[in-house]
Amino acid sequence: xxxxxxxxxxxxxxxxxxxxxxxxxxxxxxxxxxxxxxxxxxxxxxxxxxxxxxxxxxxxxxxxxxxxxxxxxxxxxxxxxxxxxxxxxxxxxxxxxxxxxxxxxxxxxxxxxxxxxxxxxxxxxxxxxxxxxxxxxxxxxxxxxxxxxxxxxxxxxxxxxxxxxxxxxxxxxxxxxxxxxxxxxxxxxxxxxxxxxxxxxxxxxxxxxxxxxxxxxxxxxxxxxxxxxxxxxxxxxxxxxxxxxxxxxxxxxxxxxxxxxxxxxxxxxxxxxxxxxxxxxxxxxxxxxxxxxxxxxxxxxxxxxxxxxxxxxxxxxxxxxxxxxxxxxxxxxxxxxxxxxxxxxxxxxxxxxxxxxxxxxxxxxxxxxxxxxxxxxxxxxxxxxxxxxxxxxxxxxxxxxxxxxxxxxxxxxxxxxxxxxxxxxxxxxxxxxxxxxxxxxxxxxxxxxxxxxxxxxxxxxxxxxxxxxxxxxxxxxxxxxxxxxxxxxxxxxxxxxxxxxxxxxxxxxxxxxxxxxxxxxxxxxxxxxxxxxxxxxxxxxxxxxxxxxxxxxxxxxxxxxxxxxxxxxxxxxxxxxxxxxxxxxxxxxxxxxxxxxxxxxxxxxxxxxxxxxxxxxxxxxxxx
Amino acid sequence: xxxxxxxxxxxxxxxxxxxxxxxxxxxxxxxxxxxxxxxxxxxxxxxxxxxxxxxxxxxxxxxxxxxxxxxxxxxxxxxxxxxxxxxxxxxxxxxxxxxxxxxxxxxxxxxxxxxxxxxxxxxxxxxxxxxxxxxxxxxxxxxxxxxxxxxxxxxxxxxxxxxxxxxxxxxxxxxxxxxxxxxxxxxxxxxxxxxxxxxxxxxxxxxxxxxxxxxxxxxxxxxxxxxxxxxxxxxxxxxxxxxxxxxxxxxxxxxxxxxxxxxxxxxxxxxxxxxxxxxxxxxxxxxxxxxxxxxxxxx
Lengths: 624, 299
Description:
The complex is a heterodimer.
Chain A: H1 3-12, E1 14-21, H2 28-38, H3 44-57, H4 74-79, E2 86-91, E3 95-101, H5 109-116, E4 121-127, H6 134-145, E5 150-156, H7 165-178, E6 186-191, H8 215-221, E7 234-236, E8 239-244, E9 247-253, E10 258-260, E11 264-266, E12 273-281, E13 284-286, E14 288-290, E15 294-299, E16 310-313, E17 320-331, E18 342-347, E19 350-364, E20 369-371, E21 381-394, E22 405-409, E23 416-425, H9 441-448, E24 453-458, H10 465-478, E25 483-487, H11 488-493, H12 503-522, E26 526-530, H13 536-545, E27 551-557, H14 560-566, H15 571-576, E28 598-601, H16 607-620
Parallel strand pairs in A: 1-3, 1-4, 4-5, 5-6, 24-26, 24-27, 25-26, 27-28
Antiparallel strand pairs in A: 2-3, 7-16, 8-9, 9-15, 10-14, 11-12, 11-16, 12-13, 12-15, 17-21, 17-23, 18-19, 18-22, 19-20, 19-21, 22-23
Helix pairs in contact in A: 5-6, 10-16, 12-13
Chain B: H1 5-23, E1 27-30, H2 35-48, E2 56-60, H3 67-79, E3 84-87, H4 90-94, H5 99-123, E4 127-129, E5 146-149, E6 177-180, H6 188-198, E7 209-216, E8 219-222, E9 237-242, E10 255-256, H7 262-271, H8 289-296
Parallel strand pairs in B: 1-2, 1-4, 2-3, 4-6
Antiparallel strand pairs in B: 5-6, 7-8, 7-9, 9-10
């Protein structure tokens, strides 16, 4: 064997990333097993293990169940379904394939979006017996949404419909109608049987009426445009390399275009420019570098650049600095997305807090209809507007997948709960800049001779929050402290009278109060906030608005039974009778604080004693 | 200009490695001495050149590794001036836990899985690189690049964080950690081709040589020291053998081979009919055994 020739051939092989999608029982795992098996990418010992497992779990009688080569996790083998994204590798003489195998059933749409995010080509399976299904619509929509431009419709199980050409044609006609508004560059249609191998690797005798290429030939010949290379240069700075006092390099992966030594570059944050001194690739110095390469750049002059910045050439008009933008979202968590709730947005090289400010509409991915909505549930897709707490360089997703995508992280439990694709920047906030006043929080507190802070009472309705807060304020007043008490019921009569008691409105209720308490703190006051504030996320949001040591969460711990027994306003009675909806503790959740600064037990102490406990606490924190 | 398949993999891995260095406070690279670790280390050195690696290396020593592995490990650490930590489960040593006396399952659990957890807890590492690849084994195929572990180091395959584009979720709470696999998308042949092209140094055990071996439970075991406890009916023979993967010597089967160079290994690999994990006793303890081990905290 000529090894040099082999390597040359290996290096000429195109890397093709494929997404496979289909509904349960379309035969997706069987098709993948077939691709691996026929391309001789299965080893003898793996076959042996599949044989053993076929006897135990297989569905093909004495034959080896090829799907068992694929279904990875034990639970899946037992249930015969795929439950997560799995990655598979196989190669032919022309290509190296990386396959993201994603599950078909409805509740796992998020996994399909995950697989689609890194794929160039999608194979959508259709069971010839069943034709275009609800799931086919759903899969095609996600494939298009995630920007995959090449689709191969694999019409499987042709053996079960006697390789009938009319059935094949009928499905194609129906499918073409379905995707007429999508942005696919190429659509291919192939009649096949994964089980029997028809048209998978070579043309089948059973479908003489079909003159097109086999599935593998189709995949090998798809022209995936590396269009980003012709665009203007951009590279988000990932890591700053300071190996010595005279070496300062900016490490990152190029997200578009080409860069050469001597090219003039800039960053959106510095507004000044310099030129490229040197480019270090993975094997030393380079004259030029391209999209997808990991490099380290050194510059002629020092600019103030760190992780989160982006290095650009001047001709780059795609990339815009913005803190508000419109985007498509895929929601991926059991907990619903609520507008105005604080989330972490993960972009290419930075994490920024922000909120979804407007839910423009959600999209029914079975009918493609746009629907007005107040919140998003698991697997919902929507178009929304997002506001970040600071400016970031972004690009529309259709022009640049790396700079136009983001994932959403729950700041409370760090789960990945959503993913988004930027449509365009919103310029409305560009002209409002923060005005630095000469009199500030420090000067005001000095005049007041006190340390301002926010004391945030949380607890069930009737737990005693307002009573304790009232006594505390009186005590502080006699100590000559300047205070203000924001009370839930009172604020709802004015500032928040437009809000109801749904989860969405509760989030907005707390957001406004948190912002008001921040202003009060800025005014130099000791601010007492007495709100049920049932959700951890919003209490954390209120805390995060302020500096360390300015926010104290006081949990007024009274068990539900006790609150219900006291029922000072008769509200529990109404809630129990169904007269009052969305009542905290009854049919709306209260999330108990896990890290409150102070917990007050109302069963063992009276309100007066509890107020004293807070006074002691504030003294220990040197607030008073 | 289009990058080749290997150049794309290389850039992707470097991106992953730099991301960890940027986002975690106290990352570590698990160094198992094998070929995948060698490639991972090589990529890390490239990612940060001309700087030193911004993290330490950790070797979890089960005390049953081939002697040549340990010698190689120390040489590499010296050559690249690496900050290498070695951790051994002292409890296990005290109780004389070993693969021959206690079987592969218990030995691996105590000396590898538990030892790894001890080391991660001891040094408070919040991210640990591993050289695992998705093509190695079926349950690996479903692993994320950034794989979240709870405070007990457990992996929950049904509750993995979705991982889109290259936007890795690096957020964790105190005490939790993330296992990071920069070689996720590499295949065995990619690894060997890269070793060849980049002239990466690997443990000599990968190359065929006359070595003293016995046959036990369908595995060809090398008599690396006296602890193998060779029975009377087991004949020690000198055979031309090499290893496709490296682990604890009583659990790692040799293959008969004449391949004495990387080129010859690649040729052998292309003609081979068996996968590289074939020589590993620990994967076959029970069906789905790798998945079970991973849930418990194994790499």
